[in-house]
Amino acid sequence: MDPISLKSTAEVLGTLFSILLMIPKSTSVPVYTESPSCANISTSSFCRNSEKLSRNMATFLRGKTQSLLPTYLSLQSSPFSDNNGDQWCNMLEERFTLPVDRDIGRLNQIQNVLGFINASLLAIAEEQENLNPNVTSLHKELRSIAKRTVSLIASTACLMCKRYQILIAIDVPELRRPPGIFDQKRWSCSVLKRSIGFFSPNLLA
User: Among the CATH numbers 1.20.1250.10, 3.10.150.10, 1.10.530.10, 3.30.43.10, which is that of 10-82+104-198?
Assistant: First the structure.
């Protein structure tokens, strides 16, 4: 059974998304705003257990992306489907970089990366629906993992409220996928490969 049911986050997600998704994609500087909504969500059952739930969810997502990467590569043409095909998955390092200091700025960047992963997985699912329309299991798995990142975004917001009593809106930059099928596949497998390293059990410690 999955460690966290999406249903368990329902009581907080409505409040979170009205706040967390309010910054335009063109905004580059996070806006720090005190919000009374913290009082509404920090006492919820989901937020009370956010530390444990975030560890479980990060571990779960790490395992899912780790098993999904070789599946994705095997369905692509050479060189991706060759042995050591993941050596081509070396883009996007800057998108997954986090601040060293474990403060609210780091939590904000974690939110932004999770938002990027969520949008990227949905884009990869659409890509594969076009390139490999018959592999519906892959499409469903990509969309399922994308949905699960929402729970981790919610956990991050809970921790912001518990530790700093404020919420910061997610600033998700445009995906900027490169032109050409080969480079798009490099981009897609790079998202999967770097997500494996990103989903550390101690991500939100």
Answer: 1.20.1250.10
